[in-house]
Every structure is written in C-alpha cells, then in structure tokens.
C-alpha cells in the first residue's frame, strides 16, 4: 500500500503517510489517529518505543503529515511547524549565521519581510531585495557573504513570477541555498525541488490546510545535511505543529488537487470579468494573457493559482466602499481557504512594509487582493458586480 513517486498527485495526497498499520495489536485505521500523548513510555532504558520519546521531537500524527507533504513536493524530507513564519524562522536560524547576506524577492508576504528586516536584523543578517522577475538582478545582488536566495513564485500580493530554473543555475554556480515559498501555487501546480530549489517552504495555513481553520507551516528538502540542521532546530526551538492541527492539515490535503482545480477555474472567470469592467483599472493574474509573465507561468507551472489582484478606478475611499458592499467575499487577511476572501494589502497583509517600499514595489493604496474560493462562480461575479456598480 506504500505510495511511490510514480503514483499520481491525488493518490499520494490521500494515501502517503497514512498506510494502514497491520502489525500485531494495530487496528488498521485508514485515517491516521490523533496521537495526543506528549510523551512515550519505553520498556527498556535505551530503547525508545518505535523511535518516539517526546512529542516536540517526534509525534506519529505530525510524522504522517510530514511524510505526506514530502511525497507531494517530491522531497526526501518534510517538517511541519506551528505557522508559516515558524517554518521560515527555523530555515533562517538553522542555515544562516550572523553577518550572512540574503538576496530576496522585493515582493514577499509582509510578515516575511518583517521577520527578516526587524527580527533577524538584530542578529546582523543582511538582505538585498531585488525584483527577481528579472533574474539578472538576482545575480547582480550577490555579495561575498551571500548564503541564500529567497523567492516566492508567484509573489504576494503582486503575483510576479521568478524563473526558478534560471535562478537555480545561479545559486548552484555560487554555492548558495535557493528557498522557494510555494504557498501560492501549492505542489498541485508547481514542484520547485524538481526545477532546482534546495528548500521549499509553505504557509500550510493556506491551500494545504484549505479551510481557514488551521495555522501551520512546512519545510521540504531532499538535502540530508540541511534536513539534519532543520530537524535539530525544529526540536531545539520547538515551534512544532500540534497533533490535532496535524490531523486537520492531513484531512485538508486529501482534497487539495480538486480544490485547486476549482479555485483556478473560478479565478480565471473572475479575472476575465474584472478586466472587462470599465471601473477596473488593471487586473493582475498570471492566467491572463495580459500578465507580463503569462508565457513563463504556462511553462513553469501546471496552473495559475486562485489569487488575483486588481485596482479599481478612484481613490482609497472608492476601494473601501466597494469592499464594504460585498456580501460573499469576507473582508479578511489570508488566502487559500474554500471561502472567498478579499483584502487591501496596503492596510492589511502588507501594512508592516514601509509606505515608501510599498510604493516602490507597486503595492498602491488601492490595490485589492482576492483569494477566490470554490463557491459558485456566478454568485461571486454577481456579488462583485453589485459592489462595483
Ligand atoms: O501566516 P503564516 O502561516 O505564519 O504564514 C506566513 C506566510 C508565508 N508565506 C506566504 C507566501 C504567506 O502568504 C504567508 C501568510 N500570508 C497571509 C496571511 C496573507 O494574507 O497574505
């Protein structure tokens, strides 16, 4: 019953890490049990039972999730954390030293920038932000102390792409670590480790969990040295995912592929509707031919995702009136859940980014981001229509 790399995505999403246990005394559960025990008894002093000692170090439910996540990203190893930012913190803490330099995409989730700029800066980590949609800028930003390149593809909230294979050639040539935050596309649409990334991170709070009811993060890699260091820090720092949250995430993953198909279908319909509306200034969605990297998106991933950004004509007041008139779209941060969410990055998800930096990267005060849910798309369009008009 063990899944292999040759099995399809949905097969692995459903079965990997959750093979029924038929050993003597086991019950053959087809769903992994929630192992709430924080500690595990042993019969002999020198022999932890089944390798389990204490839940922060290893827990059977979390291990099932880590195995499933690794199978989906075509990774050898997976680790699950209590949030996306906890996962990111563990990567930065375990692989970098004070004085090391990071080259990062200029369009990253605001919380990731806050972490790098205001937490790790205390430990003298250095960073250069570049528009990584132009790969040559990544190479130009490399310094003698550069250790790591950090990108999101697609990026949050401007949905810019980075040509991962080309950046991977640069990082390989310069012995740097390439980290890709794959939250927006999920492994359904893109597997960065297959195209040269060393480490994938996720906010599993988003598509992977999929129901806006569980916060989590993940780190995936096939590099045994990085994994050892990451696992050491996962235990030593302790920001692990709880057994119950691991179970919720495992449950969410089983429908990841079917959800993403619907998210994308709805997103494309809404992007097309908005781009034909006279009160909409511009729509950013990699699935539209008008997106400057549409061709790269078609080549690099097998889908465009369920998030789009747009600007309505007028000032911030017009944007606020529009947002407050919606009934089906919750005015809320986050993305990737079954329900549609809408937000205004400048005052919500990216408020921690300095106004001049937002202006420089193109996050205007009237930019609106939608996480398109899997509701009936005609209902979503009708709601947008009444609010715009
Ligand atoms: O919220 P948390 O699980 O800690 O994940 C942080 C994170 C990491 N990476 C990306 C690309 C993200 O979008 C996020 C969180 N983002 C939001 C909450 C948001 O609304 O954009």
In short:
Helices cover 37% and strands 15% of the residues.
**Separation, N- and C-terminal Cα atoms:** 55 Å
Report the C-alpha radius of gyration, rounded.
Answer: 21 Å
Can you name the CATH architecture of the largest domain? Answer: 3-Layer(aba) Sandwich
CATH superfamily of the largest domain: Type I PLP-dependent aspartate aminotransferase-like (Major domain)
Number of strands: 12
Instruction: State the helix count.
Output: 14
Query: Which class of secondary structure composition applies to the elements?
Result: alpha/beta
Order of helices and strands: HHEHEHEHEHEHEEHHHEHEHEEHEH
Helix content: 25-40%
Overall geometric form: globular
The major beta sheet can be summarized as:
7 strands, mixed
- For the record, the CATH class of the largest domain is Alpha Beta
CATH topology of the largest domain: Aspartate Aminotransferase, domain 2
Instruction: Name the average pLDDT.
Output: 96
Number of domains: 2
């Amino acid at each position: 019953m063990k899944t292999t790399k040759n099995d399809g995505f949905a097969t692995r999403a459903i079965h990997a890490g959750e093979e029924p246990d038929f050993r003597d005394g086991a019950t053959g559960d087809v769903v992994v049990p929630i192992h709430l025990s924080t500690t595990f008894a042993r019969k002999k002093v020198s022999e932890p039972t089944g390798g389990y000692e204490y839940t922060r170090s290893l827990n059977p439910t979390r291990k099932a999730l880590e195995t499933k996540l690794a199978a989906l990203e075509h990774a050898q190893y997976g680790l699950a954390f209590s949030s996306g930012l906890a996962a990111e913190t563990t990567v930065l803490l375990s692989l970098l030293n004070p004085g090391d330099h990071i080259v990062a995409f200029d369009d990253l989730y605001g919380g990731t920038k806050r972490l790098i700029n205001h937490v790790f800066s205390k430990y003298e980590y250095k960073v250069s932000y570049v528009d990584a949609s132009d790969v040559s800028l990544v190479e130009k930003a490399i310094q003698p102390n550069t250790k790591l390149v950090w990108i999101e593809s697609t990026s949050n909230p401007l949905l810019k792409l980075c040509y991962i294979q080309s950046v991977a050639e640069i990082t390989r040539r310069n012995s740097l670590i390439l980290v890709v935050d794959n939250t927006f596309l999920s492994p359904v649409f893109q597997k960065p480790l297959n195209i040269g990334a060393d480490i994938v991170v996720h906010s599993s709070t988003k598509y992977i969990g999929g129901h806006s009811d569980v916060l989590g993060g993940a780190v995936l890699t096939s590099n045994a040295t990085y994994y050892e260091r990451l696992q050491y820090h996962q235990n030593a720092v302790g920001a692990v995912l709880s057994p119950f949250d691991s179970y919720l995430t495992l449950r969410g993953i089983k429908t990841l592929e079917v959800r993403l198909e619907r998210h994308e279908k709805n997103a494309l319909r809404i992007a097309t509707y908005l781009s034909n509306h006279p009160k909409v200034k511009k729509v950013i969605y990699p699935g539209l031919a008008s997106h400057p990297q549409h061709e790269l998106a078609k080549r690099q991933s097998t889908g465009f995702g369920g998030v789009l950004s747009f600007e309505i004509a007028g000032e911030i007041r017009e944007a606020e009136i529009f947002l407050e008139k919606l009934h089906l779209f919750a005015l809320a941060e986050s993305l990737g859940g079954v329900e549609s969410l809408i937000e205004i990055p400048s005052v919500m998800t990216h408020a921690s980014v300095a106004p001049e930096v937002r202006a420089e990267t193109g996050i205007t005060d009237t930019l609106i981001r939608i996480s398109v849910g899997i509701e009936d798309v005609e209902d979503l369009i009708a709601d947008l229509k009444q609010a715009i008009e």
